[in-house]
Design a protein that fits this description.
The protein has seven helices and no strands. With 105 residues, it is mainly alpha-helical.
Length: 105
């Protein structure tokens, strides 16, 4: 299978997600705002799915509990897709995400 090389901001997100340190996750997640376009949210969602570094995962957990609503929602998706239900459940019980986000994948 041929590996596709992207360009622009998506490739930058991919590179940072593959590195996955705290600063890289900060860079990616800060693109999730109330002003974010639909394509930007998709780029961020895809990039977050690539984060495997423990430091990056801990940073995503930080944003799940301390980020803006849209940041918390995308972090919830990240942890749900990983099967980290206890982390998501804790955020849900604290009222940081709603029931729909808590059960989304």
């Amino acid at each position: 299978m041929k590996k596709i090389k992207f360009s622009g901001i998506l490739q930058e997100f991919i590179n940072k997600a593959n590195n996955g340190n705290t600063q890289d996750v900060d860079f990616i997640i800060k693109h999730l705002t109330t002003e974010s376009s639909l394509p930007m949210t998709r780029y961020v969602d895809y990039a977050l799915s690539l984060v495997k570094n423990e430091a990056g995962i801990r940073q995503l957990e930080f944003y799940l509990f301390h980020g803006s609503l849209i940041q918390r929602n995308y972090c919830s998706l990240f942890f749900n897709r990983r099967g980290d239900w206890l982390t998501v459940k804790k955020a849900y019980q604290q009222g940081l995400i709603d029931e729909i986000q808590a059960y989304s994948r």
